Amino acid sequence: MISPPPSPSRRNSPTATFGYRTVPIAEKQARVDGVFDRVADRYDLMNDLMSGGLHRIWKDALVTWLAPPRRGRTSFAVLDLAGGTGDVAFRIAARSATASVVVGDINTAMLAVGRARARTQACGDRVRFVEADAEDLDFDDENFDAVTIAFGIRNFPRVDKALAAAHRVLKPGGRFLCLEFSTVDVAVLDRLYDLASFQIIPRLGAMVVGDEAPYRYLVESIRRFPNQARFGAMIEEAGFDKVSWRNLTGGIAAMHSGWKL
Ligand code: SAM
Question: pLDDT, tens digit, for every residue of 50-63?
Answer without folding.
Answer: 999 999 999 999 99
